[in-house]
Amino acid sequence: MAHRDDIQGLRAVAVLLVALDHAGVRFLRGGYVGVDVFFVFSGLLITGVLLAAARETGRVSLREFYVRRARRIVPAAALTLVATDIAASQLLDVVRARRRRPPRPPFAR
User: Fold this and answer.
1) What are the pLDDT digits (tens) for 59-106?
2) I want to staple 34 with a disulfide (CB 3.0 to 4.6 A). Which of 14, 16, 48, 54 is the partner?
3) pTM of the full predicted structure?
């Protein structure tokens, strides 16, 4: 299946709706619609990929399909996990350090 910029754009809009809903943007409520739209278009794209494989080879290999997905997704997921771990360890150190500091008396210089 050829790359579909139109569908990828709609998927991006769906993700943006979810992100804005989580950010608390009041006039764009309804991130659940974004989730539904994202999954519908993802299903359309996945079906197209599987049908194209069936047309080319006469069969569908779910193993090959998932191996291709893993090669595409695992590097980004691993980077996200490592970056989140580093950021969390740094941010939590600041929070823990503030909790350990004794409170200052009022009007102290």
Assistant:
1) 999 999 999 999 999 999 999 999 999 998 888 877 676 776 666 777
2) 14
3) 0.61
One-letter amino acid of 64 = E
pLDDT at 42 > cutoff 70: yes
Q: Torsions phi, psi of 29, nearest 5?
A: -70, 160
Q: How many CA atoms lie within 13 A of 2 on its CB side?
A: 3
Look at phi and psi of residue 90 and say left if phi exceeds 0, alpha if psi is from -120 to 50, else beta. alpha
What are the residue boundaries of the structural domains of the chain, listed by start?
A: 1-60, 61-99
